[in-house]
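Narrative summary of target 7.
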Amino acid sequence: MLFRSRVTMNLSHKGYTKLRSKGFRAKPYRDENGNLYVGYRHKLSDGDGVAYKDVINAFKASELLIKDVEDAVAKVLPTVTSSITQDEFDALVIGTLN
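Modeled conformation, tokenized:
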């Protein structure tokens, strides 16, 4: 019987810093496709509690970023089938968010 080891990794502080370095936008804005974004490039959806005319602070933007990262990590983890470095994992998670 084969047992698959369960990988338990998360985005590093360095990874979060890279995501934040892309810039913070307090007011929602539309991209070239008409999608609404706010904070650290969080794509707005109905459950976010942010309306088009709202202005958010860095704390709210960080909450949204954490949720986005959690979702991305959940997508990436099942695809990792061998040992990878933290930098490689960060790159996969960041790539999933872009």
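Residues 58-76 form the longest helix (19 residues).
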